[in-house]
Amino acid sequence: MANTKNDVSFVRSEMVQAVAPPSGEIGVAGWMKKNLFSSTSNTILTLIGMYLLYLVVPGTLSWGVFDAVWSGENRLACATVAQGGELPDGWKAACWPYVGAYFKLFIYGRYPDAELWRVNLVLFMFFVGLVPLLMPSLPYKRENLIFMLGIFPVASFVLLSGGNLSLNGFLLPEAIMAPSTFKFWIDFIILSLIVCGLVGAYMKATETDPRQAVTLAAIAMAVLGVILFVMSVDFGLVPVETSLWGGFVMTLVIAVTGIVAALPLGILLALGRRSQMPAVSLFSVIFIEFWRGIPLITVLFMSSVMLPLFLPDGVTFDKLLRALIGVALFSSAYMAEVVRGGMQAIPKGQYEGAMAVGLNYWQSMRMIILPQALKIVIPGIVNTFIGLFKDTTLVSIIGLLDFLGMINLSHSDSNWATPVQAMTSYLFCALIFFIFCFAMARYSVFMEDRLNTSHR
Prior knowledge:
The chain is mainly α and 456 residues long. The protein is built from 17 helices and two strands.
C-alpha cells in the first residue's frame, strides 16, 4: 500500500475569484506602454515626436484659432493700427473673415447663383447614397449600388450641365442632310454595333456561353440607349458650361470619376497582364508601363493642348472631359499594379482548388481569387484613392479652377490682400483635404478589421 503520509497533492474545491488585470496593462496607461514606450527605440522616437508637437501645435493653434480674427468686412479687420494712426502698422493672425467672404467661390466656383440648387441637389444625392453604401450593417446594398453607379452619374451630369446635349449626328458627317431623329438612331445603331462587337470579342476570348453573350449585349445596348436618350432630352434646365464649374465641387467631380473608373479598369488590366493570351498580356503591359512612366502633369497637358491637334476639323472635346479621361487612365495603371500584387499573394492552391471544383477562369476570379486579393490590398487601393484625390489640384495648370485653383484666384482681390491672406487660405485648404483623406484612411482600417479572417 502506498505511503500517503508525505502526500502534498491538493485539489481545489472552490474557484478563485477573477482578479482585475494590472492597472499598467489596461486603459490609457496600458495603451501608451504597448504602443509608445514598448522599447527603448520607441521611447526615444515618442519623446522626439512629443517635442516636435510641442514646437508646432501651440504656435499653430495660437495663430489659427486663439489670436485669429473671426469677423470683419475687409482687410482692415485683420490689421493692427497704432494708437492715433489711420493706416495699418501690422497684421494679426489668421484672417477667417476672408475665407467666409470667399466660401461660396471656394465650394461652387463661378457656377451661377440662381442654379446653385442643382449643385446642392447633386451633393445631397451623393452623400445620401454614399453613406448607406459604406455602412455594412444597412440593407439594400444592391439597390444602393445600382443607384450610385447607374442613376446618380446620369442625374448628376444632367443637373450640373443642364442636359439636352447635341448628340444627334455626332458620328455622321455634317454633309448628310437628315432629320435629327434619324441621325440620333443612326448614332445609336453604330454605337450598339461597336458595343456588341466588343462584347462578342470578350466572350469569345473567355469561351463564355453564347446565351450569356447575347444577354450581356442586350443589357449594354439598353443602358447605352437610355443614357443617350436622357442626355438628349430637354429638361428645361439652363445650360452651364464646364468653364463655370470650379471649387471643391470640381475637385469632387474629378476625384469621384477617377476613383470609380480606376478600380474596374485596374482590375481588368491586372487580369490582362497575368493573362495567358500573348496579345492581351502585351497590350496590358504596354498600357500600364506607358501611363506609369509619365507624370500626371504631362498627361493633363497632352489632353488639354496636344489632343485637339490630332482631331479632325470641327471635332472637339470638352476640356473637363479630356482631363477626366486622362486622370482615369493614369490612375487605372497604378491601380492595376496594386491589384496584381494582391493576386500574386494568393497561394497557388487557391487557383488549383477553383479548377478542381470545375470553375472556369472568370468564375474562379470572381468568386475566389479577386475577393481575397482585393481584401489583401485594401491599404494599397485606398492609398491610390488618396493620392488621386490630392492630385486633382494639378488640373489648375490647364485652366480648370478646382478647389486650390479658386483659392489662388481669390488672392488677386485687393480688398482682402494681406500678408496673412495666403497662409489663411492654404490652411483652410489643408484642413479640408485632411478631413477627406483622413476619413478614407480610417474607413480602410475599419474594412481591414471587418474583413480580417486570420486567427489572432
